[in-house]
Amino acid sequence: MKNRHWLLFVGMVLTASCSTMPSPKSIASTKFEPAQGTIAANFLAARQALYLRDVSASAEFYLTALNFDRNNASLLQQAFYTQYQLGHIDAAAAIARNMEVLNLATSYASEPATAKAIVLEDWDAVLVLADHIAENLDAQPVAAVIKAWALAAKGQGAAGLSHLLKIGEANTIDGQEMPSVFAMQAARLSAHLGNDTELRGFADGLFNRQNLPSQILLQLAGLYARHGDTAKMAQLIDRLPTGFNKKAVQNQLLNQTEPPKIASHIAAGIIDTSMINSQSQTSGMLNARLGLALYLDPQIDSAHFLLAQALYEMEQYQAAIVKLDAIDVAGAWGQPQLLLRIDLERKDNMTGAIALLQTAVDKDNGNALLRKELGDLYRMSDQFEKARDAYLAAIDLGFASGDLDRNLGIAYEQLEQDQLAEDSFKAALEKNPNDPYTLNYLGYWWADDGRNLDDAIKLIEQAVRLRPRSGYFVDSLGWVHYKLGNYDLAVAFLEKATILEPMDAVITGHLGDAYWEIGRHAEARFKWQYALTIAAEDELKAEFTTKLNQ
Hints:
There is one protein chain. This protein is mainly α. The protein has a domain at 464-550: Serine Threonine Protein Phosphatase 5, Tetratricopeptide repeat, CATH 1.25.40.10. 71% of the residues lie in helices and 0% in strands. The protein has helices at 24-31, 39-51, 55-66, 73-85, 89-101, 110-119, 123-133, 140-153, 157-170, 180-193, 196-207, 214-226, 230-238, 246-254, 262-276, 278-282, 286-296, 301-313, 317-325, 334-346, 350-363, 368-380, 384-396, 402-414, 418-431, 436-449, 453-466, 471-484, 487-500, 505-517, 521-534, 538-548. Helix 3 packs antiparallel against helix 4 and helix 18 runs parallel beside helix 20 (334-346). The two termini are 37 Å apart. 47% of the residues are buried.
C-alpha cells in the first residue's frame, strides 16, 4: 500500500588533456583481475550481470575482458560506464583518458576528469571541461552549474551568475517559472558573492513557490538559517514530507557554522540538475551523477540516500545498506535513512525490522510517524492488537492521515471490531475520497460479508476507475457481482482479474466459484485445482480441496 522509493543515472565527452590523471596502465595493474576465460566469455558475463542489474559484477567482468584487449573500443566504453555508475571516479577518469588517446568519443567521459579538476581547484581546466560537457544538450544544466562556480572561483562571479541564468532561461518552458534548481543555485551563488539583494530576490522567489522538491526545501531553509531568518527556515521545514524528523532538520541547520565550499555547492547542483533531466533517470546514469557529487563532497547525505534508494530499486540490498551506513543518523536525512533501512530489513526479517523500529520509538517516544510506521509493521505481520495500539498512540501524538485511518480500520476489522473498523474507513474516505485502497478494502469487506452490497459495488467501481490495471480491485468488482448473483458479470470481471494477477490463488478460486454457478463445472474444477497448486496457506488449500471433492 505504500512506496517510499524512487530513482537512477547521466554523463559526457573527454578531449582535454589533464596531467593529473592517473595512467590507465597503472589502474590496470592494480585494479584489473587476472585474465580468466576468454574475452567473449567475460563480455557475455558482463552483459548478463547488467541484465540482472548487478553493475558491480558487470564492471569486474568488463575490466577482466580488457586484459585481453586494452584497445577494444566497445570494452573501453562499457568499462567506463560501469565504473562511472559505481562512483569509481578515478578509475572512470583513467579509462576515459585512455579512450581520448585512442580518439574514442564517449558520452559523459569528461565528467570524472572535471570532478578531479574541481577537487584540485584547477579552475582553468574545469572551464574547458565544462564546455565539453555542455556539448551534450542533456548535460547542459550540469555544465552550467559547474561553469558558473568555476567562474566565481576565478573572481568572475557576475559572469558566472549571468551564465547560470542564461542556461536556466533556456530550460524554462514558456509561461512557467525557471526550474527551481537554477533559482536555488543562483541564490547560493549570490550568497557566496555577498550580494544580499540578489540573494533575497532569488530566495524569496523560491520561498513563494509551491511543491518544491525536498532537496530544494532543505537547501533553501539552510540558506535562510545561515542569514539569520529563522522564521522562514521554520516555515520551509514544516513543508517537508512527513518522512523527515523536523526537529533533527532544524537542529542541523541551526548548528551550521561554516558556509559550504565551492565543491559542495557544485555537488548540490549536480544532484538537482540530474534529477530534473528525464534522460538521466532512464538511461542508468543518475547513480553516476550521485557518485560524482559524493566525490566532490563525501558528507552530502542526500546523495547517499538517493543512491541507497536506487540500489534498493535494483535489488542490490547490501550495497544500499552500505550507502545508508554513511548517513548521519542525527542529521536531516537520519529518519529517511531509518525508514528505508527498515524497508530493507523487513524483506527477510520482519522480527528484526520491528525490533529496529521499536528501538527508534523508545529513543524518540514522542515521534508520531515512527509510531504509525511501527503499527504498519505489526499489521503486516498479522499482530493486529499491537498494530491498533501503535496507530492509536500515533493519533494521540497528533498524527493525522487517511492512510493511518485506513490501516487502523484494517486492524479493527481483523480484530472483529466491526463498527470501529467502519468508522475508521469512513474517516479515511473523508480525508481522501479517492483513495483506491480504502475504497476497495471497505467494498470488498462488505461484499465478502454479503452486506451493503449496493454501496459496496459503488466503492469498488470507483477503485477500479482509479486503478483499472489492478487485478485485486477487478477481482473485488467481480466478487461483489458474484455476491449479488450477477454471475455472468462476475465471470467477465474475474477472468480479467486472473489475467492481471495469474498467480493469485484467491482470485483464481473466485473464478472457479463463478464458473460453477453458471454450470461450467469442468472449468470450475480446473481453476480450483490450479488454485490449489499455487496456494500457500493451509486454510486455502483445505477450502479448494473441499470444493474439488463436491
